[in-house]
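Notes from hallway chat w/ T.B., transcribed later so I don't forget. T.B. wanted the structure written out for a chain they're using in a teaching module, and asked if we could keep both sequence and structure tokens in one place. Agreed to drop them here.
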Amino acid sequence: MSTEQIVDTFQEGILVAVRLGAPVLLLCMLIGVVVAILQAVTQIHEQSIAFVLKLIIVILFLVIGGGWMMQTLREYALMLFEQMV
């Protein structure tokens, strides 16, 4: 395996990690900002509200998008196994 192929494989791995992690992280960030604005407006400063809401949203996202995430990871793993042969 040449150096160029190794670099390409690592780059693809980083891109897969970003594709899998970014939607969840961006969703959590968006929910956090919305909850912070609502808490500032209503002057309710309860930390568990943001945590529970984020937890529910992430679980729903994983239930809905889990198949896509698993398919993306499976395709990357198959590509790695094909390169090893």
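Follow-up for T.B.: The chain has one domain: 10-84. Might be a good example for the class.
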